[in-house]
Amino acid sequence: MTDYQSLPRAEFGFPGPLRDRLVAAVLSGAKTTTTSLAAGYRVAGEALPRPGDRSVLVDSADRPLAVLETVEVRVLPLGEVELRHAVDEGEGHTTLAAWRADHEEFWHSAEFRASLGDPEFTVDDRTEVVTERLRVLRRL
């Protein structure tokens, strides 16, 4: 077994164009941060990430592409996310409003709401988010 095969998988979004775009941004170095909802960890029964955690970045075809390391983790209300974090997500956002609109579109999608088991789930400024700063340790 290769050393990375025992690591948890780092999956951005759901398989498809969004995931592949985010994976490409990670691999290019444009994406060094990401944001998740704390509720997603609770529903999945997963522990929150911690600095030093390592994971394997996978694409939509479930191919392992890189080993990532979590550098920083913060849990805060959505309304307190800073512009620097949004820009570092590498999706081309230059304002918090644009970043938030894209994230709300994803979090309010039928697919995401189904993953939480709540068809009416919605976010507001008080919604708890988990922000992570990541680095690519090694490409596979």
From TrEMBL:
It comes from the Bacteria. Residues 12-138 form the ASCH domain. InterPro entries: ASCH_domain, DUF984, PUA-like_sf. This is ASCH domain-containing protein.
